[in-house]
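In the lab's daily routine, each protein ends up as an entry in a very long ledger. A line of letters takes care of the sequence, but it says nothing directly about the fold. The three-dimensional part falls to structure tokens, numbers that each stand for a local backbone shape. The outcome of that step, for a single protein, is printed below.
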Amino acid sequence: MKRTSRGLDPARAFRVGGLSLVAAAMVAYGTQTAETGIGPVGAFPLLLGIILVTTIFDIIGVSVTSADSAPFFAQASRRQRGARQSLWLLANADRVANVCTDVVGDIAGTVSGALAAGVAVHWTGPEPEPLKVALVVGIVSGFTIGLKAVAKTVAIREANRVIRSTGRVLALVWVPKRGSQGR
């Protein structure tokens, strides 16, 4: 498909959606399998881990849209570790933000909700009590949303620091090609 006059790529949207479907199914299956094996008490740390991961990715996704690239050009000219990765992130901010906030966030939100419901059902016994299930799911949702609200404020205020740290972590495992914008 051709890009529209606004630079949008409908084929990319379908690719992202398809990959998200596969990733979500795999993560959900793995999480449900793990939850079944470890029980409701062991599922609680797993649930907190999923919430933490989605919050970290949310911070990166918001920061990449509000960071200033000038310091990273200076760092790259001095060949500082992670500067090229940070510049790649900023050059591809729309895609990075989409993956971090939408893809990872939506998958993690769905999986954490299902995991919270599963924990609540185990907690209430063989005959689930709707009020207890709603209470557990509400607590998990409220905690996640509140944490992400604080995280987004930090992400905007500390955008350059977040992108610098992300670039340094990426530098441990990946080096972009010279001049590559990744498009």
Q: What stands out?
A: Residues 1-5 have pLDDT under 50 and may be disordered. Residues 11-171 form one domain. Residues 31 and 132 are 22 Å apart (CA to CA).
